[in-house]
Amino acid sequence: GQSYTTIYTCKPLACYASFYGNKLYLLKPNREANKLDEIEILEFALPDDIEGLKAAKKRDAAQERLELLDNATCGSNTIELTWRPPTKNSDRIDRFKLMMATTTGVVKEVMQGKYTTFRLSGLRPNQEYIFCVKAVFDDGSFLWSDSKSFFTKS
Questions:
Q1: Superfamily in which the 64-152 domain is placed by CATH
Q2: Model pLDDT, residue 99
Q3: Contact assessment for residue 13 and residue 27, using Cβ atoms and an 8 Å cutoff
Q4: What is the DSSP code (8-state) at residue 123?
Q5: Which pLDDT value is given to residue 70?
Q6: Distances (CA, A) of 97 to 42, 63, 64, 112, 114
Q7: What is the CA radius of gyration of the chain?
Q8: Domain ranges of the chain
Q9: Secondary structure letter of residue 147 according to DSSP
Q10: 3-class secondary structure, 85
């Protein structure tokens, strides 16, 4: 049989890496001989309970979210909104600010306080209003909810 020898030239001080399956092979050079003479193999594995870890990450993310709830009570000239503060660091919340925008581009703060429910009155019937809530923490940092739109009844 024939024997083959493969000769590779390597760049000085270069390190070569390749994945094969779940292993990472690192070839490291010998500085004096200008050849590859050290191999390092790292094996990667996924955790056994990957779905459990994903669910825990979702729960953690929900704890850090400020959520304006979908269950607003809408009248012809009133809207009552409720929001859920984040459970993480909720004791550090100094106040909430409720912001309202109209479809004409007017944006204003309509409430500031410790409430998690607020009823707005004096609104126009059959109009869309967009709201978001800002939680202000005792150190001046803050967290916004996603904005949501609601319609008054006609």
A1: Immunoglobulins (2.60.40.10)
A2: 96
A3: no
A4: P
A5: 93
A6: 51, 19, 17, 4, 9
A7: 30
A8: 64-152
A9: P
A10: coil
**Successive 10-residue mean pLDDT values, the chain, 154 residues:** 57 77 81 70 80 78 84 96 91 96 92 96 95 95 94 94
Residue 101 pLDDT? 95
What's the rounded Cα separation, in Å, for the pair 91 and 137? Answer: 9
CA distance 146 to 127: 20
Which of 130, 120, 124 is closest to 150 using CA atoms?
Answer: 130
Strands (E) located in the chain = 16-20, 23-30, 35-43, 67-68, 73-74, 78-84, 93-102, 107-113, 117-121, 128-137, 142-144, 148-151
Residue 79 identity (one-letter amino acid): I
Burial class (CB within 10 angstroms; exposed 0-12, middle 13-18, buried 19+) of 96: buried
The pLDDT, as a whole number, for residue 54 is 81
pLDDT tens digits, 48-66: 777 888 887 777 766 688 9
Q: What is residue 34's predicted lDDT score, i.e. its pLDDT?
A: 63
